[in-house]
Amino acid sequence: MQRLLGSALAIALLTQAAIVSAQDLLADSKAPAALAFEMKTLEGEPVNLADEYAGKVVLFVNVASKCGYTRQYAGLQALNEKYADQGLEIVGVPCNQFGGQEPGTAEEIATFCSTKYGVDFDMLEKVEVNGDGQAPLYKYLTKESPHPGAIKWNFEKFLVGRDGKVVGRYASGVAPGDADFVADIEKELAKK
Question: 67-123 pLDDT, tens per residue?
Fold first, then answer.
């Protein structure tokens, strides 16, 4: 009986140690929440968002080439040029869900962005940002932002802090040069 009790106690202790070790391992390898996703670049190459953007301030923007807000590419590029060396990463995410305003292929989108607006910030593959086919990144962003809910139009912006938390969400009409928007970016960049 004592041998059986001793064996049971040993198994319980080993199980507890394994659970604690597994939890420690998960905690150590856990990517910042908003960056815990695999996506593809506009060129179709896999990208681990945590590997690419951990420790940086990231602005995710669902973009379109044939939208009234398309001119915001110029302002986004200006932000990129001004703040990239301070740790800002702008990530364009093409989407064709709003009025069919991003019908192009990846190559057409890349050519349009670079020739028309000189865009050199990162662009991901075209995805759905709402509905049944919603990309996991956007499921997270729309749920965890300060203003949760479905995306209403092209050029909505999500600001993610260095800690991987969504700290801001901005409607399409908020221009990249808007003073309050820029102040929010600068506030996040100041956090080290």
Answer: 999 999 999 999 999 999 999 999 999 999 999 999 999 999 999 999 999 999 999
Are residues 24 and 41 both part of a single domain? Answer: no
CATH of the domain at 129: 3.40.30.10
Expressed as residue numbers, the domain containing 13 is 1-30
Please list the active-site residues.
67
Domain count, the chain: 2
Q: Is 94 exposed, middle or buried (0-12, 13-18, 19+ CB in 10 A)?
A: buried
Contacts of 34 (CB under 8 A, 6+ apart): 49, 58, 137, 140, 141, 144, 158, 160, 164, 165, 166
Tens digits of residue pLDDT in 22-48: 333 333 446 678 999 999 999 999 999
Q: Are residues 52 and 99 in the same domain?
A: yes
